[in-house]
Amino acid sequence: MRPDAFMNTRRRHTVATGRFEDEHTPDAIRARLARGPTRSTLRDFVYGAIDGIVTTFAVVAGVAGAGLETRVVLILGAANLAADGFSMATSNFLGAKSDEQRRQRIRRQEEQHIAVVPAGEREEVRQILTGWGLDKELLEGVVDAVTRDPDRWIRLMMQLEHGFSPSRVSPARAALTTFVAFVTVGFVPLAPFVIDALPHVTVTSAFGWSTAMTGIAFLAVGVGKGIVVAQSWWRSGLETLLIGGAAATLAYAVGTGLGAFA
Description:
The protein has 11 helices and no strands. By secondary structure, it is mainly α.
């Protein structure tokens, strides 16, 4: 390793160490835990963005493959952004709401079990914590401490028995994130045709521009996802580009096939 590269590595390590230490002081830990766990909307954004690009490009590619007029692209593309975007947002909202309703049902169920068969529920806690490698005396102490507080007892069972995350999802926030991502990113394949429809403006090969911009959009979404989750940005970008490109290619192939019968 070159001396300058070595020094840069040490400098980054020193900066990271200082930041980590600042984040792990008693006051910083107390403040962070007081805020509670939060759920990232990254999944909802990527879900909406990818689907928005694919479905809009499917319209563009289908029309181009079938040899239909440009105005058909604009009409169908706008209808897709509005209708499919709202449909996806609604589906995400209902799905998130269903998860929350299931959480509440399981919680009521655990409350009932603790009230009716507390010994059996204590045994469940004991068997769950046995896998943590605690010795018998310490295990019993932990079981006593957990089951002394019904709310703490239920929260442990919800997480370790039923697999619920301690972070809560807002159905409205999930739906809004999906809709915004779908409409904004999904508009990219349609943009060249919109520009071409402006007065006194001509876009040569609007479909070619749409294809290129779609690929860039896929790549950008993947790169952004990779950066946010601290993974290889180029690998994440390439993965998203390949998967999205396969869907886009399929859409164009179907449009071309149908155009042959038009």
